[in-house]
Write a structure and sequence with these properties.
The protein is α/β, with parallel strands linked by helices. Helix content is 38%, strand content 15%. A hairpin with a 2-residue loop joins strand 2 and strand 3.
């Protein structure tokens, strides 16, 4: 068995296609009767098609899914965000680290929202998917070879530095 597509039910398929094109560069491969297949395996389906097909109402904003995108050119993506006219909601474990930078420098002239703290943590499935992707790309290392790449000194190291009265902490 092979996963072929991820389906997202949307209220407005035209604005959704535009959103995924403008921000993530996904193109429409097939557009037919309330369904749109985009590059990278993403499928958009209008809510009325979903409800008619399954005979059930859509449960909006149930937060039971997650899409993972990887961007290698952060500056380009931030330019796209600045031009984007829709609502922007940030979530993930990087939010507390970059919140001030986002609100006071990068997107200071925009109204942006931040997801609640309980939604700002990695899920094991996301970490596992990334590990599988790295493994398939040949990016492997043993536990002995692994060296964490911290964005900042850990809390334990900061507290140790305070206790010992040192001016610097080696990483």
């Amino acid at each position: 068995m092979k996963l072929k597509n991820i389906v997202i039910v949307v209220k407005d398929i035209e604005s959704s296609k535009q959103f995924y094109k403008e921000l993530f560069g996904l193109d429409v491969i097939l557009d037919q009767e309330g369904n749109a297949i985009l590059t990278e395996g993403l499928v958009l389906q209008e809510s009325k098609v979903w409800e008619e097909t399954l005979g059930q109402k859509v449960v909006w904003k149930n937060h039971a899914s997650e899409l993972y995108f990887e961007e290698t050119d952060l500056e380009l993506f931030l330019e796209k965000l600045q031009k984007y006219e829709g609502k922007i909601v940030f979530l993930g474990d990087g939010v507390p680290v970059f919140r001030e930078d986002l609100t006071e420098r990068i997107l200071k002239d925009r109204e942006i929202w931040f997801a609640p703290a309980q939604m700002n943590r990695q899920r094991a499935a996301s970490v596992g998917s990334l590990a599988l992707w790295y493994y398939e790309a040949g990016k492997v290392e043993t536990a002995a070879e692994h060296q964490p790449d911290y964005l900042r000194v850990s809390q334990a190291e900061r507290e140790r530095k305070e206790r010992l009265g040192h001016d610097s902490v080696s990483m």
